[in-house]
Amino acid sequence: MELTGKRIAVIGLGKTGRATVEFLVRQGAQVVATDEKISTLDVSDLSGAEIMPYEEGLLKGVEMVVPSPGVPPHSFLLLSAREKGLPILSELELAFRFLRVPLIAVTGTNGKTTTVTLIGHILSQAGKRVFVGGNIGTPLISYVSGPQEDDFALVEVSSFQLLWTEKFSPYVGILLNVTQDHLDYHGSMSSYRAAKETMFLRQKDGDYGILNGEERENIKLKERMTSQVITFSSQKKLSPPSLYLERGSIVYRLPEDWEEKYPISMVKIPGLHNIENCMAAIACSRILGCLPHDIVQAVSTFTGVAHRIESFAQINGVKYVDDSKGTNCDAVKRALETFPPPVILLMGGRDKDSDFSVLGPIVSQKVKCLIAFGEARESIARALGKKVEVIMTPTLKEGVRVAKSRAQTGDVVLLSPGCASFDEFRDYRERGIMFRKWVQEEGNDKVA
Fold it and tell me: Which residues have a Cβ under 8 Å from the Cβ of 421 and sit 6 or more positions away?
């Protein structure tokens, strides 16, 4: 792909956007760049690009547009670019055009970060060189700027990144699950799923697709794929090649009745969903040449990722759990399934057009008090107020104060917001860090 001399617009100057600008400048492109908050950003490090206002004039003379993942498809600049017939490529697609090493891509609504991190851990422990990045850590565009000396590139990919792709197609693709999320961005569940499916439909005969075999739509997807498909399920036995649970083991069943067994006890992170993540990681690692005993050893030493169902404190007999990364209803459900009642649940933040009522059954079973905070507090209260006692607070900090005052010995206080963090925080990481800070502050003030 020749970029020299091309006038290319980059929209959005967060981490990915800045990395894209740097890559394009090194490729000899004429880069124009902007951000919705351009007046408040320090862009002094982007000396090779022309920084412009967030206005339609940005597109004058442009030959290609590269939006950052956070720029929604209904942005007026993207709508205008489409009307003008300009090519729109995501950073992921652009990086793929320059990638020289085999690619593993993990997508899905929940579990991506855990699964990517686990696969990276297994590969490293098995002596393989691997780049780990994408939607977590280093953008893929930064990696392709370097020597690319690893055995594999392993990336987490979001629906935002996949939306503007044309050729992106991994050697191994993993689809963990697809549940309601980001409807404010994609507009509908069908559009959200379609974005996830694109990379699998482009795979070739020699590629591999690893799919959650419990989802009906994935069975339909399998029929449309040309790659070799492996399925997994924590609920039922599937036709080979597949992974499933049987008598305390994860069974990896291959054609011609060949089986490998991995003890469930090797999985140290809580929740049935993490068994499923581990199944996907096993299948991927075996494709990439890791031996079973290396996989068992690596999984046994994997302790999970920060802010994902992470127990971090035990105070006066009360367990405190940080699941700040749980930003949709399915993530909240998975977190609640991990713990016995009684749970004091903290939910809230910025709504993503979620249907909180789907949590009604499990909230009724597990939650003794729901503290709804932030912008979404009234929506959460309306959806779940008939299922459980709901206390609304304007901020998470106030919600933590209420939770500490209500908690009794044997309770679990769980932050699993089911919402984005941007009403109060930069991201889910800052939200999780502040939650821990407020929990561990001295005092346990009673609420009047």
Answer: 324, 327, 349, 350, 427, 428, 430, 431
Give me the sign of the Cα torsion angle 339, 375, 387, 275.
Answer: negative
Q: Where are the domains of the chain?
A: 7-88, 93-300, 310-440
Fold match, 7-88 / 310-440: no
Which tokens in the block code for residue 380?
A: 């959460």
Q: Of 177, 26, 179, 191, which Cα lies nearest the Cα of 94?
A: 26
Neighbours of 207 (CB within 10 A): 22
How many other CB atoms sit within 10 Å of the CB of residue 127? Answer: 10
The superfamily (CATH) of domain 7-88 is NAD(P)-binding Rossmann-like Domain (3.40.50.720)
DSSP assignment of 135-149, as one string?
SSSB-HHHHTTS---
Confirm or reject CATH 3.40.1190.10 for domain 93-300, answering yes or no.
Answer: yes
Question: 3-class SS at 372?
Answer: strand
- Residue 263: other Cβ atoms inside 10 A: 12
Domain 310-440: CATH architecture, name and number where available: Alpha-Beta Complex (3.90)
Give counts: helices (H), strands (E), the chain: 16, 19
User: Could you tell me which of 161, 188, 173 has the C-alpha nearest to residue 222?
Assistant: 173
Nearest alpha-carbon partner for 243 in 212, 218, 219, 267: 212
Structure pTM? 0.89
Query: Digits of tens for pLDDT over the chain (448 positions)?
Result: 999 999 999 999 999 999 999 999 999 999 999 999 999 999 999 989 999 999 999 999 999 999 999 899 999 999 999 999 999 999 999 999 999 999 999 999 899 999 999 999 999 999 999 999 998 989 999 999 999 999 999 999 998 899 999 999 999 999 999 986 666 666 687 888 898 999 999 999 999 999 999 999 999 999 999 999 999 999 999 999 999 999 999 999 998 878 999 999 999 999 999 999 999 999 999 999 999 999 999 999 999 999 999 999 999 999 999 999 999 999 999 999 999 999 999 999 999 989 999 999 999 999 999 999 999 999 999 999 999 999 999 999 999 999 999 999 999 999 999 999 999 999 999 999 999 999 998 554 433 2
Instruction: Measure the CA–CA gap between 444 and 407, rounded to whole angstroms.
Output: 10
Count of CA atoms in the C-beta half-sphere (13 A) of 140: 30
Q: If residue 134 lies in a helix (H) or strand (E), which one and from where to where?
A: strand 130-134
| Strand ranges of the sheet holding 228-232, from the earlier edge strand across to the other edge | 130-134, 152-156, 103-107, 172-175, 208-212, 228-232, 242-246, 249-254, 258-263
Say which residues have a Cβ less than 8 Å from residue 83's Cβ, sequence separation at least 6: none
Decide if 372 contacts 388 (C-beta within 8 A).
no
